[in-house]
Amino acid sequence: MALGNIVRKIHLWVGITCGLVASISGISGAMYVWQPEISAALNPELLTMKNIDSLEDAVFLKTASSLTTTHSDSISKMFLPYREQQTISIEYKNGKTNYYNSENGQFLGENSASIVFFEDLLKFHRTLLIPKIGKYVTGTSTIIFLLLILLSGIYIWYKTYNTTLKNGFKIKWKSKKKKFNFDLHKVLGVSFFIPLLTISFTGAYFTYNSYYKKALSVLDSKTILKQETQNKNPSSFAAVLLDSDKSYHLRAIYYPKDANDNYRFRYIESRFKTQGLRKTKELAVSTNLKTVSLTDYRNDATSNRVASQFYPVHIGEIAGIFGRILVFIAGFIPITLYITGFRIYLSKKRRTRKFPA
């Protein structure tokens, strides 16, 4: 069997199977792109503050310290203002999530149905809500979509139109349904090849991040940069919390699950600006307030710096509003390719039955 026929068979059968999972992931991902704006619009009493621009980081940190003192051992996680959330939220060990005014710590309310919807949507996007193996189903399907469906599709397109490339981008809008369906499949496939390739490659990272980092380690210099550890012996939890870094803003605190666990402080360079590179810092402190580890984008290995950009690239935020619009549209392309491709398959099958070889 000729290589071209083998590639077409791969494109067909892998597309019909794994293409469906990729389509579901694409739609759920597209829906999640506008989560910040929709959540803020539906929950202004929980997520927004009128005077947020006039508040400094010291105010947020002081409120976070006060809330920690008040709720002490019942806290699992605390999230400070970041992206659409201008308030402070606390996830408790009993599973509840409450929101508080980031200036004075006043209770604002519990998690709303719309916020929970987007939390569940993200879980569905990453795992299809299948326990334990769900992330491997989506991650593997994404890799197959990347390596077999997209690459075989571009190969077929190039072999067909390599002498007249412009014809590969044409859609005859007034042609018969079969021809229009075929044109739509080929044009959408080649036009969104790069965006879909990028989204698939970065999406699989969240399942197979250890393998990605191992591969990216070839970018690292043999000289390992030493991370500077600040505040090695703080006098209290509040001292760690209030220890400000002008380069970063504290966005989340993960509290110890037990006496052997650590506090984890996650920092971000920009609270509300989403365009550009994602620069972060993470500090781990033991329950007896000893610094366990510190990673900082400024001094991190090249592989980790690159890996930290997979999320903003995957959701388009690295390119601002244009990138998010592109990812949103691209999210609906796999299901369109799946439907048009399946119609092409059915059309050929009916023709084979009508005119057997």
Automatic annotation (TrEMBL):
Keywords assigned: Membrane, Transmembrane, Transmembrane helix
Residue spans crossing the bilayer: 12-34, 136-158, 187-208, 321-346
What Pfam families does its record include?
PepSY_TM
**Tree of life domain:** Bacteria
Q: InterPro entries attached here?
A: PepSY-ass_TM (IPR005625)
Name of the protein described by the UniProt record: Iron uptake factor
